[in-house]
């Protein structure tokens, strides 16, 4: 049976939510009780940005806001700060998704990297202003760099495993709206 565009969108949304829930679950598991030597890249951020840049209809802004607010609460971060910054960045990428459709992967990667750098700097500045304890700057820079360098890998996995790719020029949904 052929999959309708509406069914494809809801399947993509379900995959996005389940993948984010899996990442949150795996980060909460106590797999190793020793302190980590290297910070883990922010896979949740990578998934949200990859889905927002490639197929914004698969990752609605409300889903992203709810998932990241839940992650803020579960990971004991200041509630809403990181979630708000990720929502702003994903909305910027969502608005530019048609422009990103026609550029090479390197330029998309650079624009996402610039966004990750900006939200990380803003996050650290806000935490410094309100005198909240935070991770050392070196660890934050390593995590940010690893997150940026893994973006193409996540795009490849999203495309090959989950079928998240840029819509073709002129492609429409079931209601005739351009994607």
Question: What can you see in these coordinates?
Answer:
- The chain is mainly alpha-helical.
- The chain has one domain (10-27, 39-160).
- Helix content is 65%, strand content 0%.
- It has helices at residues 5-28, 43-54, 61-74, 81-95, 97-100, 105-129, 137-149, 151-160.
- The radius of gyration is 17 Å and the shape is globular.
- The two termini are 23 Å apart.
- The mean pLDDT is 89.
In short:
This protein has 179 residues and is an all-alpha fold. It has one domain.
SSE layout and pairing:
Elements: H1 5-28, H2 43-54, H3 61-74, H4 81-95, H5 97-100, H6 105-129, H7 137-149, H8 151-160
Helix pairs in contact: 1-2, 1-3, 2-4, 2-8, 3-4, 4-6, 6-7
Total strand count, please? Answer: 0
Strand content: under 5%
Tell me the series of helices and strands, N- to C-terminal: HHHHHHHH
Cα radius of gyration in angstroms: 17 Å
- How much helicity do the residues have? 55-70%
Structural class based on helices, strands and sheet pairing: mainly alpha
Largest sheet: none
Unreliable runs: none
What is the domain tally? 1
Mean of pLDDT: 89
Oligomerization state of this entry?
Answer: single chain
User: How many helical stretches?
Assistant: 8
What is the overall silhouette?
globular
In whole angstroms, how far apart are the ends?
23 Å
């Amino acid at each position: 049976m052929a999959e309708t565009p509406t069914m494809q969108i809801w399947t993509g949304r379900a995959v996005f939510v389940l993948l984010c829930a899996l990442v949150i679950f795996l980060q909460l598991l106590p797999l190793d009780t020793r302190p980590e030597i290297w910070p883990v890249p922010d896979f949740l951020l990578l998934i949200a940005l990859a889905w927002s840049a490639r197929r914004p209809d698969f990752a609605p802004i409300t889903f992203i806001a709810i998932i990241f607010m839940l992650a803020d609460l579960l990971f004991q971060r200041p509630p809403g700060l990181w979630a708000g910054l990720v929502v702003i960045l994903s909305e910027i990428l969502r608005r530019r998704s048609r422009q990103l459709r026609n550029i090479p992967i390197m330029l998309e990667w650079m624009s996402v990297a610039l966004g990750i750098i900006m939200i990380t700097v803003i996050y650290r500045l806000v935490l410094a202003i309100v005198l909240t304890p935070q991770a050392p700057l070196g660890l934050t820079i390593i995590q940010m760099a690893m997150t940026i360098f893994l973006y193409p890998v996540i795009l490849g996995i999203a495309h090959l495993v989950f079928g998240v790719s840029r819509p073709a020029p002129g492609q429409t949904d079931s209601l005739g709206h351009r994607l």
